[in-house]
Every structure is written in C-alpha cells, then in structure tokens.
Amino acid sequence: MADMRPVPVRLLEYGVITSQLLRIVNVLVHAGAMAAALDIDRTKLLIGPFANAFVAIGLTLVITRGRFGVARWFLAVIIALDAVGLAGIPVVAKMIGLPFAIFSTIAILLMLAAAVLMFLPATSAWLKQDKAA
Q1: Domain that holds residue 57
Q2: Of 59, 62, 64, 94, whose Cβ has the fewest other Cβ atoms within 10 Å?
Q3: What is the pTM of this model?
Q4: Does residue 14 have a pLDDT over 80?
C-alpha cells in the first residue's frame, strides 16, 4: 500500500522521530558525564529524554497519521521550548562536551525543520482534506 501523504507530512514524521532517537542515543552515550555534571543518578537522567520523545512522537503521529491539526500547536510549543534550549548549548558544551552539544544542536534543528513542515500549505491542506466544512 502506497503512502498517500504529502512529502512534507512524511518528512515531518521522519524528522521528529529522528530527532528524538538522536536525543535519546546522545543522552545514553553521554549519561556518565551528564550525571556527574548534574550530580544526579543516571537512571533519573534518562526519564526526561524518554518522556520528551514519547510526547513529541505521540503528537507527531496524531498529526501525521490521525490528521488532528490542532495537535500542531501543542507540538509547536514543545519545539519552541527546544529552540530556547539552543541558547544553553555553549554551556552544555563546556559541562558535558562538544560532541554532546553538537548532537543536541542537530536534534533541535531537526525539530525546527519539523515546525516549518507542520505549517506548510501542503500540510495544512492535507489536514483539512476530507473534513466536514
């Protein structure tokens, strides 16, 4: 069965999932340094990335598979909070290391790209298609 969704909708889904998986792997690889820098237990450290991924991917699937357009605004808030996190990247680079900061930046940039894709005319038209007027 062919995927009939427009390219921006598919890219939105792939971008968010890739971003979140990258974020989880990044935290897993650098968990020791993060736990030491933040003085917390490694297992507690992992709760945040997994919870964030669950919510972001869930909202994305509600948008891309369930065609529930209002979910875009909830995901946009999460992405906006990610964008604010870009300001802390230099501090993160000093505390945890440059590789962690680079991969974190890539994950955030993927989410920003997803935000653009969410509001493209093709995505909006697809979300409104087959809806009662």
Answers
A1: 8-127
A2: 94
A3: 0.91
A4: yes
